Amino acid sequence: MLEKLPEPLGHALREARAGLDKIVFNRCGMRTGHGAIAVASLAFADHAPIPARYTADGEGVSPPLHWSGVPPQAACLVLIVEDADAPTPEPLVHAIVVDLPAADGALHEGELHSPHHEGGSAHEGRNSYLRSGWLPPDPPTGHGTHRYAFQLFALAPGEPFPDKPGRSDVLRAVRERGLASGMLIGTYEREGTEKIRTDGAVLA
Q1: Torsions phi, psi for 114 (to 5 deg)
Q2: pLDDT tens, residue by residue, 13-60
Q3: Which residue ranges make up each domain of the chain?
Q4: pLDDT > 50? residue 204
Q5: Which residues neighbour 154 within 8 Å (Cβ) at sequence distance 6 or greater?
Q6: pLDDT tens for residues 126-147?
Q7: CA nearest 78: which of 89, 86, 70, 88?
Q8: What is the distance between the alpha carbons of residues 152 and 107, in angstroms, rounded to a whole number?
Q9: CA of 65: how far to CAs of 43, 47, 70, 117, in Å?
Q10: Backbone Cα Rg of the chain
Q11: Could you give the CA distance from residue 65 to residue 107 in angstroms, rounded to a whole number?
């Protein structure tokens, strides 16, 4: 897990980030002229910190989400959660859920499987650790604030998803069948004990 990276390495990698431009929401090419879905959470506001309860520093359960504005012609919904600030070439996938009912609805707290929680019966895909369910946020210590994009898409009828869909399956389906989209961003930072001088040197 990324929280096990040494703090000095976290500081050294502060500028290494995948970028918001690479998340599915910004790569699917469907936002202009398509519908908008309102995505929110009872646990945190848009662009506000995610409580530690939902991260690797707490219980690590999946946060509650709810949404509205699903178009009537939609056949299903798909959710993908990505860390736009992971020090990796592509955003880190924290959860994929497909075949959600095509209606205004919600995912309750802990509804997704996580390392120490059984979860519910949602059709979950593979996160970046090739596991099903919720991968709790665990940014490297000292790397700065990470933005976690909870992206929801309404899809037209089409081919069914595989049993354990991955990011490429989601991106392809959204590009081919996307009708509407919405996004909620939560942030999380694991602060370190070291401080950075203005010239970039690390102080103990």
Answers
A1: -145, 170
A2: 556 688 999 999 999 887 655 789 999 999 999 999 999 999 999 999
A3: 2-192
A4: no
A5: 35, 37, 70, 71, 74, 76, 77, 102, 178, 179, 180, 181
A6: 999 999 999 999 999 888 999 9
A7: 70
A8: 12
A9: 8, 14, 14, 17
A10: 17
A11: 5
* pLDDT per residue as tens digits for the range 152-201: 999 999 999 999 999 999 999 999 999 999 999 999 998 765 544 444 44
CA nearest neighbour of 2 among 61, 64, 59, 57: 57
For the domain made up of 2-192, the CATH class stated in words is alpha beta
**Helix ranges, 63-197 (H):** 167-177
Is 121 buried (19+), middle (13-18) or exposed (0-12) by CB count in 10 A?
Answer: exposed
CA dist., res. 111 & res. 114, Å (int): 9
Q: Which two tokens stand for residue 3?
A: 């929280």
pLDDT tens digits for range 106-127: 999 999 999 888 888 899 999 9
